[in-house]
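so i finally got all the pieces together for this one. its two components total, 798 residues if u count the protein bits. some of the lines might not be protein, just check the labels. i wanna see the whole assembly predicted at once instead of chain by chain like last time, that was a mess tbh
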Amino acid sequence: MYGYSGKILHIDLNERKHWVEEKPESWYKVYIGGVAMAARLCWENIEVGCDPYDPGNPICFANGIFAGTPVPVGGKYGLASKSPLTNVIGDSLSGSWFSIALKRAQWDGVVIHGASEDWVHILIDDERVEYLPAEKLLGLGTYETEEEIREIFGDDQIRSATIGPAGENQIRFANVTNDGRQAGRTGHGAVWASKKLKAVSVRGTHGVTVADPETLLQMSFDITESSQGPHTEKYRIYGTSTNMLNMNKMGLLPTRNYQEGVFEFAELVSGEYLDEHHKVKVIACAQCPIACEQMSLVKKGPFAGAMTGIEYECLQAVSSNCGIDDMTAAIRLVDIADRSGMDAMSMGVTISYAMECFEKGVLKKEDFKGEKAPEGIELNFGNGEGAVILAEMIINREGIGAILAEGTRIAAEHIDQEYDAETWKWAMNIKGLECPGYDARSLKTFAVGLAVGTRGGCHNRSAAYDPDIKGQTNRFTIDETRGKVAARSEEYAAVYDTLPMCKFIRRCFTGKADRAGAWPAIAKLINATTGWNFDYDDVDLIGVRAHTMKKAFNIREGWKEADDDLPYRWKHDPMTIGPSAGHVVTDEELKYLKKIYYEAKGWTEEGLIPKNLLVDLGMDDIAEEIGV
Amino acid sequence: MVASTSKYKYVVCDPELCIGCQLCEYICSYTKTGEFNSYRSRIRTVRVDEVLITAVACRTCENAPCVIACTRDALSQDQETGIIHIDPKKCDGCAWCIEACDFGAISINPRTKLAEFCNQCEDVEEGPQCVKICPKDALEYTTPDRRAQRTRHKLVKSSLEFPSKAKDPR
């Protein structure tokens, strides 16, 4: 078998032992890699119904089919556990060296069971597994932990996935970080902390061979060349932050905790401003010729020295969404999140929620007392310095930081109970995961895509904002086509998330990003790697299977139709200014959208999956358990 | 301290252009071994402090210190090209050459523990494959003289661009 070793490594932290599970080629043809294989490993190894912090919740790595080969942007892995934010599947992706090291160590996946008594650092050294004490790594930031580990072993090729202080303190939206990239959003860092797992390091020394290296190399050369042209210009020059002004123009830029979609100071926190004043270097993930990460430095002022990669989603969450027009504060906030190892998007939305609580009088200045703010914080929208102090209080679980560290859903429950308020109406999350940087009130197709999302409020899993923004659908209205558009766009995204490949390459195969433009080339890449005989339909099925796998996991963990919902604000509070003013997605509209979405998926009215559909996808055992 | 400069050509990386993608390592290891494996690549990317990135391969020093340091006469330098050749029968992996190299440009095979050198793809008609694949044109197959000229040109260009970068609309 080319492309895979056929082996999954199981590690039990209770007993400190490991074993090897062999999987047949037929299994890989269904689950491929990335999020689909990670979710499948989670399905196979979880104690059904367990709390996400319970030792019965496994950590599941699944490598990419193209990791360790020259296929551009194929150096990625999937990571899945039950998410402490959403209580359903938490599936993330991260790029760069870690996946390549894992491929060279010849593991297609790694499943970590149980929980350790003491903080532990796992070293996977080809086929050998070591359990190293991690006390000396505790308190180190994400970048520092990785550097320290490479220093200890004296080998640059050792690559580590780690948690930082935010993870150690079990911040519910903590990330896992490797090579400066994050497996983000769904709180993997908090799950790792529940197992006292600080880091997983991999040294892989074996070469990677593929079925047809000449074809694979030629295609890789061609795609690499194409990736230097207009198809990726947006990502290479300004990075994704160029969206700030675009979204602002359309009235979609989250502003002051999603109260409005237009930010009057957007130019001061735009990608263009960042490029001119703060950019020091553009860097790439390993195996990527595009290089989108705009490393940005604060050169002077109170936040001087802060440096990290800035992307649109993180930038909007901590700038316009918090009413902050100071780019240096925004960079510092993302820098804090990245170095402490927590999700900058969830952190930003949690801080903006706290700001609204302050402005509307539920929380007072003295509620924000901490070591750095002995008198408390006047946490108005726009208070960048206050936001930075609050972010540090969240990492340390200091004062109110301990409540906000649970994310907006749980924090609002606490605050509403304690202050007899209804702040849950301002808690901008879906299924517990904080919303992304596209206001869905006037993106009606995206609205249903988000509501039904298997991991909550995520723009990466539902790609339905694309047709809405491009005008392929009328974003202000609904019609009977939207269920199908939402269903097909999430399945499209799931193909990339399962291979996995970075979606930024999507136009580089033929110039067209649609299925017809990309799937034939992807099939050819898969065949040159594995020696299989995949065609267009097989590639298309990858996405359907991946999405179905995750949905099946959620159903077994107790998902209900009512969980497919939108935040109160998007259903009831229209914006007052800009092109999106006056729009909401009403409960009736959402009900209709969900109905036509379930129909388009071929599911029941309650959103359950028929048995025959699962059997047709080659998921017979899943059909037995949750099919109807 | 740099041991010596050279008249020979070598593969050099511009750290400002290098993005750390490692495609050079893939093509190098494939050309030399038929497998994709950074450990077997004769060119190595380096990234420190997050944004300092470059790639390093043999600099073909004149009077190469690695050759002088070798205790078993396993290394020899081609007088035409400056390329270091290794006799695997003589090399015992003692690592003196690695200690002598000022650039950390010598790789160790993780299986055999023997030294491996960049040979500038002298057996491939198109020349160094890493230079060919580099998506950012960060790699150059050049001599120190040409390199110096290029640096001077860059310096002039960047000083012209500087004033427009410095203005602040705030």
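The beta strands of chain B are 10-13, 44-48, 52-56, 75-77, 84-86, 107-108, 115-116, 139-142.
Confidence is low (pLDDT under 50) at residues 163-170 of chain B.
anyway lmk what u think
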